[in-house]
Design brief:
Largest sheet of chain B: 5 strands, mixed
Largest sheet of chain A: 2 strands, parallel
Strand order of the largest sheet of chain A: 1-2
Number of strands of chain B: 5
Distance between the termini of chain B: 79 Å
Largest interface: A-B, 53 and 41 residues
Helix content of chain B: 25-40%
Distance between the termini of chain A: 51 Å
Order of helices and strands of chain A: HEHHEHHHHHHHHHHHHHHHH
Number of helices of chain A: 19
Radius of gyration of chain B: 24 Å
Order of helices and strands of chain B: HHEHEEEE
Number of domains of chain A: 1
Radius of gyration of chain A: 23 Å
Shape of chain A: globular
Strand content of chain A: under 5%
Oligomer: heterodimer
Shape of chain B: elongated
Helix content of chain A: over 70%
């Protein structure tokens, strides 16, 4: 059973890796002075150069691993869900189809090697500073301590928190126990049936090969996503910015108390935060390195965010509108390719979402409100006041003062003006900002008791955007390094 | 090289992060890795309901009524959670609490001694009975 699960995971990863390798070009290291006579370099410089090169390669591997695993998981989950939609008696073919897809991707991969994998990042560094080694070393220690904490937390709540067993794992059990009867799920009431199925699909897919729907699969999955988020934040910042900033940002993420608390909860919030971060990172890299295929991957991740939670739908809409707007605003060569790649990434998942929403999902209580009551809520100053106080208290208390500290950091370190001129950086920042604003508006017009709604959801909404916010802030900080 | 502003802020970020991580870790270690009370309750109730699954095969919907001791004054929210948990355990069978006419009914007692609590057993026969108050009834003359 364990071998079967490991084999499934391996297939999922290899499939994701081959899929990502086809489209993703991450910076490849070249020597900044290839013609230089290395014999003239001192041994110390050689050691420094080797250290930076080794770290760079490691960070690139981590980055590829994070994106590949996320892509593989989402692809596998969507494949399983599509089988449930179209051929629910044949879901056991899922592994065979995955192996076939892996084979096809491998054939394409080895038949037509990636020719666009050009080197575009130069490593200028030949010096070595104490914090080049110390800060990543601290990061590594804290990272393992973080894993230890969330591992222990996962052990003490094997079924996750209430939302996990009453929604996500419940949906997964319907999807995996008797796949031919999974539509019974929609005979229920009040079990969040409009929630998308990316996470339940993945759990159900892994449960498929095991005789019992053991709790260790959702437990393992819930540990995987926070680890992926932290690693992705670190590796992406290390590749496009520097190692110090990357270490500090990811240390802030992994030490956020609410992030640690929610990590083993087995809900989709952290998975969503990972997908939002991945999408924005890929979008930024696509623009910075002029790699249009990265738009496809970014679009795929954004659409998967919409398939992970309803909040992700807002993210998908905002980013798609943003990409369209940028294309309209700046009609230069290549923009059409950008939008085509973005759409090619979003459309397959978008169609699955559309089918689910039309065929199965009941309407969301948010959208079925009486316009008069809605207007009353819009005009209620008490509601604004309560939401404002919540935002302010989150502002001060999040991570025991992380947000004021970040503002102080931005003020003292300064903002890199070139970043603000980057089209896709601005798009990402505006998307995250807009999402915060829309979340607040949703709370103001919420059909549920406002106090209860804020209590149960506000922190989770902030958590969904927290890794992306850290990424954007640290990316914009001024850096003395080349 | 780091200037003094960058160094101070880096140290500040590191110290605060370390404090968050260690304080959170220590507060969690107080439980010594044993199951939390909520986690234990969910685990036990899940196992309790699982024994019914073989009897429910072929039934899309099953009636469910939770009968509790009023003297315990369980808050309604906890009772609702119990229904959610029963549904979670018995998926993909759908537990109907109202206006249903199923062939099987689960009576979930929150009592050690459950006899005498049933309002009417005239048309029902026992299929399964556990010592901890979980009962499965089948309508007389209904298909098994």
């Amino acid at each position: 059973m364990i071998l079967s699960l490991l084999f499934s995971l391996l297939v999922i990863y290899v499939m994701g890796y081959l899929f990502v390798s086809r489209f993703m070009v991450v910076p490849v290291l070249i020597s900044s002075h290839p013609a230089r006579d290395k014999q003239n370099e001192s041994s110390w410089i050689c050691i420094c150069r080797n250290f930076h090169e080794a770290m760079f390669r490691l960070e690139k591997c981590i980055f590829k691993f994070c994106i590949a695993l996320g892509a593989g998981i989402s692809f596998s989950s969507i494949l399983y869900t599509m089988l449930l939609f179209c051929a629910k008696t044949h879901v056991h073919w899922c592994l065979i189809i995955e192996i076939l897809c892996t084979g096809i991707l491998a054939w394409i991969h080895f038949r037509k090697p990636q020719t666009s994998d050009k080197s575009f990042m130069q490593l200028e560094r030949t010096d070595f500073r104490w914090f080049d080694a110390v800060i990543p070393a601290i990061w590594l220690i804290l990272f393992f301590y973080f894993i230890w904490i969330i591992f222990r937390l996962a052990l003490i709540q094997p079924h996750g928190d209430v939302d996990a067993w009453a929604t996500w794992n419940l949906h997964a059990r319907f999807m995996s126990r008797i796949p031919s009867e999974w539509e019974n799920l929609f005979l229920l009431k009040d079990f969040h049936l409009d929630y998308p199925l990316l996470l339940p699909g993945f759990i159900a897919r892994l449960w498929l090969g095991s005789p019992q729907d053991g709790t260790w699969i959702p437990q393992g999955a819930s540990l995987l996503f926070p680890v992926l988020s932290v690693l992705l934040l670190y590796s992406s910042l290390a590749l496009v910015k520097n190692r110090l900033w990357a270490s500090l940002a990811s240390i802030m993420l992994l030490s956020t108390p609410y992030f640690m608390d929610r990590a083993p909860a087995q809900c989709a919030d952290i998975f969503l935060s990972y997908l939002i971060l991945a999408s924005l990172v890929l979008l930024f890299m696509a623009d910075t390195y002029r790699q249009h295929f990265l738009f496809l991957l970014g679009g795929w991740m954004a659409a998967c965010a919409a398939w992970a939670k309803n909040e992700g739908m807002l993210f998908l809409v905002l980013t798609t509108l943003g990409v369209f707007f940028l294309v309209q605003e700046n009609k230069r060569r290549g923009n059409k390719t950008e939008i085509m790649n973005w759409l090619a990434g979003t459309l397959p998942v978008g169609l699955v979402i559309l089918y689910f929403k039309i065929r199965y999902a009941p309407s969301n209580p948010m959208v079925n409100q009486n316009p008069e009551i809605l207007m009353q809520k819009f005009c209620s100053w008490e509601r604004y006041s309560l939401v404002f106080r919540t935002v302010m208290s989150t502002f001060l208390e999040w991570g025991r003062g992380y947000i004021p500290l970040l503002i102080l950091t931005m003020g003292m370190w300064g903002i890199d003006a070139s970043r603000l001129r980057s089209r896709y950086y601005c798009l990402s920042a505006m998307t995250i900002g807009m999402m915060f604003i829309v979340y607040m508006i949703i709370l103001i017009v919420s059909p549920f008791p406002l106090g209860w709604h804020i209590f149960t959801s506000w922190k989770r909404l902030v958590l969904q955007l927290w890794p992306a916010t850290l990424w954007l802030i640290f990316l914009a900080l001024k850096s003395d390094e080349k | 090289m780091l200037n003094y502003k960058q160094a101070i802020l880096s140290v500040l970020i590191l110290v605060l992060s370390l404090y968050n991580l260690v304080s959170f870790g220590l507060s969690q270690h107080a439980g010594h890795g044993s199951l939390s009370s909520a986690g234990k309750k969910v685990l036990l109730l899940d196992q309790r309901y699982q024994v019914l699954r073989p009897f429910l095969a072929g039934h899309k919907t099953v009636g469910y009524q939770l009968m509790y001791d009023p003297s315990k004054k369980d808050p309604p929210l906890l009772l609702l959670m119990r229904y959610y948990l029963a549904q979670y355990s018995l998926a993909p069978h759908v537990l109907k609490t109202q206006k249903a006419n199923p062939l099987l009914i689960i009576d979930d007692f929150d009592l050690q001694e459950s006899s005498g609590m049933f309002p009417d057993l005239h048309n029902w026969e026992w299929v399964f009975r556990s010592k901890d108050g979980l009962n499965l009834f089948q309508k007389k003359g209904g298909a098994s």
